[in-house]
Amino acid sequence: MKPTETQKVPRRGKRIGECLVEAGLIDHETLAKALEIQKSQKKKIGQILIEMGVADDVTIAKALAEQLKLPFVTLKKKKISNEVIKLVPAELSENYLLIPLKVENRKLVVAMVNPLDLYALDDLRFVTNIAIQIAVAPQQDILDAIERYYPKPGLEKGFETETDEEHGVELIRRVETDEKDLLRLMQIAELPPVVRLANSILADAIKLKASDVHIEPQKTAVIIRYRIDGIMREIMQTDKHVHASLVSRIKILSNMDISIRRKPQDGRFQLKFSGDIYDMRVSSIPTSYGEKLTLRILNPKAAAMGIGELGFSGRELEIFENSIDAPQGIILVTGPTGSGKSSTLYACLNRINTSSVNIVTVEDPVEFDIKGISQIQINPAAGVTFASGLRSILRQDPDVVMIGEIRDGETASIALQAAQTGHLVFSTLHTNDAPAAITRLIDLGVEPFLIADALLMVAGQRLVRGICQHCKIPHDLSFQFISKLPIDINGAKEKTFWKGAGCEKCQYTGYSGRLGIFEVLKITPAIKRMIVPDVSASKIRTAAIKEGFRPMCLDGISKAIQGLTTVEEVFRVSPPGPELLEQQYISTPISREEKLVEEPPAGPSFAIKNVNPKKILVADDNQIIIKLLVNILESENYHVVSAADGLEALKLAHQEKPDLIITDYLMPEMGGMELIKKLKSQLSTRVIPIIMLTAKDEVEFEVAAIDAGADDYVTKPLDARRIVARVARLLNR
Ligand SMILES: [Zn+2]
Description:
With about 725 residues, the chain is an alpha/beta fold. About 40% of the residues lie in helices and about 20% in strands. Helix 17 (about 410-420) links the parallel strand 15 and strand 16 (about 425-430). The radius of gyration is 32 Å and the shape is elongated. The structure holds zinc ion. Zinc ion binds near residues 468, 471, 503 and 505.
């Protein structure tokens, strides 16, 4: 459902006007007049009737209360405790004209002007997480009470950036471009429940040190996943109906166009959490179930790291630092996406960034703003590519140039030429290891002599997960494996290896945080001589090892011995190279202790689900009704399972995972209301839509059923066309 539509179209249930006609307070003609006025004035119908002089607010409230069999209350003499007021945010009270009165029998009693406002009930339940008991109060009473209990802050306060004290999140919004057009959608996106949900998703992501947040719509649910330490983890599922507003909320924050839903978009915003400002890069892509959002969280601290903090050890650090201090030449960092290459480059820039050095970067995107450095963002649509950006940079005669990535021959050639003519150049290449950088440059068409002349050093790197230091225990690797290590690194054969046992702090994964493992290839005279058109990476590698080059996986093992990571983790990101395997380095693969899911599991289950008929669970103690429903639904190609009472229905709901449930109101063992409450209280069954079926055609039953969490309400006697239409509507929602 689009948010615009949910606001305009009255949902299930009666409207207040019809109810007042039934109560005998007004006639159809008056209602028609009032509705006509409403079209132009956009006021609430009660307010219009008051202004028309048809009735006052007290009479309307009394009539509604009587008609709906709800208590009528006045508020003038009522004292409401602060604890109760705090349960409902001011915006919600003002928006829906309601006020919480008390908590009684584990229910929040709320006085409302319009008890038929199901949006209000949905939001109240969402925000308070308590069952709601409705009372009706006159409009003026509620307005007065809101003024009394929710005092308005000073005007200037409204202009401050909003804060959510609960999560300590402060959102720093960029300037809106077209305020008016966005206003309506913004209103929905800024309802307290949506704001709160978005804030807690962001706050939790930062708390858990996630690098990415994925908001993925599915058929009936929205899945929120975080990437933590490089691994995707499902955090929560929530109702599909919050998807549009949640996505709108984040798109508004990111200054994206919320009216565009079928084209990919990018945006960004900043977020303050515990005193640190985080940059959020947001991208949206359309999927068959709606927009999928991905948020990349950039921690500015990552850009402020020094070379010493990256995790280079001994010999590698020395080569690295010597290369950076060279007056000219090119330094390359290699690795796949997400291996921490950017952090390494930024650390290099931090080291040489003084006022006497002119540093310029060309990046895609500019990940962190660094003081004192000119940073250019590539923009192919505007003709700014790595190559063209680099050309214009070089005209400004910088001392140091950083190129985000070398992807093409043109960029490679310009970069190498610049490195040969008095510039220190830093860049990254997407290769598996350091020696492969040389052959990649040759493949990109750079003259081998140019490479030999300009290249100073190539670093290869990966990120591995660190062992959680709170639950670290010795970990006996197989003796077979350790005894076959070709080199006795730091006396590895006598050393203890470690792993995390899993504790609350690491969410029972045994891992916490990440660190880099590296290999550093120094371009020595011997290596230079090897750079000829048909040289292979493995040949360079073998020669380098003779000169002391230590492959990344050995750096990893050395870090495993230090208790920083596990050997499994090292081999996950950097399997032992051929030169080690040739030495019978490893004869049996290391078993993985946990299944690592880097990407969402492939979707055969989805495909099958789409082809298979939808499953509907029908619960009724009347066998005739069951038979009728089975006939109706099966003729529409649904697969039907049936239960004779509520208890059986609850069991089947968990076992069969139906796509929809139709339940009777009165049943032995467990009634329909209790069944709905139980289904809605559990994450695994919460998303299943439920239709309440009953002979009672009275508004208060409908309100009660919807209040309990039913998604729709159908009265007996059964009408085949009606039930089929309702089922289809809920399943397509
Ligand atoms: Zn732990």
